[in-house]
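User: I'm putting together a teaching handout on how multi-component assemblies are represented. Below are the sequence lines for each component of a complex, exactly as they appear in our records. Could you produce the 3D structure of the whole assembly as structure tokens, so the students can see both representations side by side? Please keep the chain order the same as the input.
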Amino acid sequence: MSLAEAEAVEIGIEAPGGLWSEAWRKLIRNPGAITGAVIVGVMVLTALFAPVIAPDDPRFTDLNALNHGQPVGPNAEHWFGIDTLGRDEFSRIVYGTRYSLLIGVVAVMIGLTVGLTLGAIAGYAGGYADSAIMRCMDVMLAIPGFLLAIGIVAMLGPGLGKIMVAVGIVNIPIFARLLRSSILAQKQNDFVLAAKAVGVRGRSVLTAHILPNAISPVIVAATLAMATAIIDVAGLGFLGLGPQDPSTPEWGTMLTDANNYLSSAPFLAIIPGLAIVLSVLGFNLIGDGLRETLDPKLRGR
Amino acid sequence: MLRYVVRRLLLLIPILFGLSILVFFWVRALPGSPISSILGERATPALIQQYKERYGLDEPIYKQYVKQLRAWSHADFGTSIATHRTITYEIKQRFPATVELAVAAMIFAISIGLPLGFFAAKKYGGLFDHASLFISLIGISIPVFFLAIILKYIFAVRLGWLPTVGRQSVLIETEHPTNFYILDAIITRDWAALWDAIRHLILPAIALGSIPLAIITRITRASVLDVQNEDYVRTARAKGLAPITVDQRHVLRNAMLPITTIIGLQVGLLLSGAVLTETVFAWPGIGSWLRDAIFNRDYPVIQGGILFVALIFVLVNLIVDISYAIINPRIRYS
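Assistant: Of course. Below is the structure of the complete assembly, with chains in the same order as your input.
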């Protein structure tokens, strides 16, 4: 490795390093991002320690606990009340955290891995590969996201895993487009030209120089996509396309049942709904905080 | 301008082509063949063969595709398995309901979001600004169907102010020449029906309009903040123009550019969100139709419905792009 090349590599590593530490310092001073991190942190802990926190088995039905066949509202013994089948609502919410997090992570991961690969190829290779990939992405974007997800679920059949895949696929074109345009912008930069001039190989230019600099809008988008994924999966669950085993404590599915008992037991709709809002809010707050610190257009402010 | 429109139209061709291929193969990738979804699983081989010939399913796949394309170009989307009515007929019945709901949601979102974002930017950093940020944050974090359920519970179930489901009370009997109920009521001068239609529209429109409201507020705020610091705004102020004139002629006019794009992009969101909102309020539009189709495994409906919504979405985006080029000359020449 020549001296110039070594230098170029060093610059490539050092520049994002500076960016990240600066971003981190800003992020921990952003009250919104802190609030979001606390919410998500509590969610993660709840999910991890669900068996310790939850007083009951979320699937355990106790018809004797019902009040003349009706669900019972929140009380000292059952903090969030009892649902229509005599299950402890609090335990179901606690276990539901696991599903919500898992859904968000898996759906975003599917969108990220496929979308980023396609976006990186399109952005870096250009030419026919670029045109072919981006035209396919355009077609996917021509169908409104949630409808595309519905179409995919209709094809795959309902189920928890399948709605995660569907929401993940919907995310693919968004990430691909984002990374491509970000790479195209970075390609114009002088440090890329410098790296190429000193003879750095094509793949290293992409992985060591372009990607680290092009990735920050993707991080922001991925965090916000977690929020959207949780909402979309809950929506598909609400439509009855989610887990087909009705005892699964998935928040969206819990709302479906509750919609039918709205006049007699509104808390069964309000509690899982608020759980969804809170978790989505957490990711949105982190995403907004990240955007404020990472977006080059906002960075100077 | 004409050149821009032509170029934009040419760009549509590969998208429409890809869309038709996607939807065509999507139906063929469904579990079970189209035949078994029409005839059921206990159909005799002879009957299956007869249907295959009738629908051309024994022909090579590219021929089937061309045939399908020809049918689609004549607005022939097939027949619903559940109701035996043509998809085109059903769309004619149901699309006005969805449009009515979407327009009402958009009116709600713009009439509140635009002033909210504008005054938030004017009072940047103040209490009102923080309130608007909080409202828009909640707006994008609350699932449409949850908001719909809450609104229904408070205003329909508890307070009883507004109806819970549907577009019209059963007691109202009126003509429907256009299927846009508000328009119909005005045409027939049936004021009771008009009031009834509006009352049915309020809750679904607010639920569906919540996300566009949040996004429009945010974009308006950001856009006004951007424009406010431009040199030409300072010049306008410096030469002694009244603040309201500066706001109208210099700030709002330039700030509207990104806002119009965002408003156009919300249309897709409204069409998607309609599935959930319409389900909660039993609104007889495209959304609840698609939802029922999924449960009935009514594949022609899902296929036709998704294709139709995608077409509308693409068309609206085209109109948005073109109108954007009309207001912003910089786009045309890039």
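A couple of points students might notice: The interface with chain B takes residues 135-136, 138-140, 142-148, 150-151, 153-155, 157, 227, 231, 234-235, 238-241, 252, 255, 258-259, 262-263, 266, 269-270, 273, 276-277, 280-281, 284-285, 288 of chain A (CB under 8 Å). Residues 46 and 94 of chain A are 6 Å apart (CA to CA).
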